[in-house]
Amino acid sequence: MSSPRNRVVVFAYHNVGVCGFEALLACGFDIQLVVTHQDSPTENIWFASVERLAQRNGIPVIKPDNPNDPEIVGKIRQLAPDWLFSFYYRHLLGAELLEIPSEGAFNLHGSLLPKYRGRVPVNWAIILGEKETGASLHRMVVKPDAGNLVDQQSVPILPNDTATDVFQKVTCAAEMVLMRTLPKMLDGSATEIPLRLDEGSYFGGRKPADGQIDWSQSALQIHNLIRAVAPPYPGAFFEFENSKLKFFGSYYQHDAAVGMEPRLYWEGDYLRVDCRDGHRLTITQAEWEEKPLTEQLFKQCFGEELRLIGSVNVHPAT
Fold this sequence. Notes:
The protein is an alpha/beta fold. It folds into 2 domains: 7-203, Rossmann fold (3-Layer(aba) Sandwich); 208-314, Methionyl-tRNA Fmet Formyltransferase, Chain A, domain 2. Helices cover 26% and strands 29% of the residues. The protein has 8 helices and 17 strands. It has helices at 14-26, 50-56, 70-79, 95-98, 121-127, 163-187, 219-228, 295-302; strands at 7-12, 30-35, 61-62, 83-87, 105-109, 117-118, 132-139, 149-156, 202-203, 236-240, 243-256, 263-267, 270-274, 279-288, 291-292, 305-309, 312-314. Strands 10, 11, 12, 13, 14, 15, 16 and 17 form an 8-stranded antiparallel sheet that branches. It has a 7-stranded mixed sheet with strand order 3-2-1-4-5-7-8. A hairpin with a 2-residue loop joins β10 (236-240) and β11 (243-256).
């Protein structure tokens, strides 16, 4: 028989969803139902499966297109959960769902709330040059990422961390928050503080097209974009002669640029980019027309250098 106040319905997906699921089990919660997503055939599924974890534990799983459908709401209401948790679930939960659990509904978000509310917070934090981010557990209200904060844990963003590097750190931070807080939630000793929403901003989702490089930016800004959208994300790119040259990795060391104008060139074993602010990047992985960009291919296609002017790219003058 279930212990008092420990019946849970979990909405979860991705690595953080698996982490949160495991934390609930470890802390003695009785998971009645798992709500997750159907994997999309058009998405690179590089992360762990919440569905498989639920099946391994003999817990029922559903994958509705709309969790706020009246039939789904009714099913969850019949389960009479004490708690509802959302761990990287991609749909917003409406008021009818949030009102069901007797102890409340709680979400785990991948930023230091109230900063970076909304979509893909790790990617946005890197793009905007943050030196730290983290994981936050907060009470859910109808407005996204706006309810009272229960706990959070920060992690550093190092200058050459990719989004995957930071996401792994955030997953560990999420586990720390949950293992520190879930026992307190069960025994009634957890506390909450209101979020100061004016101290942060809301960010929307990102599309592959948002990875286009603007060569008028500084070396660090360009580096931040490249590492924020590096694989398993689609990568950064610029267009040249009706094709795309894609960058999947870069390294930033505050090196001074060799030339006075933005340009792409090969130096020794490395592909370099001189940027408009007088600094340069090392490109660690690139692709041209779906082929790895080697020194031989670069010189065959572009000669000794490719000049970079805003979003327009030209061969050197002859």
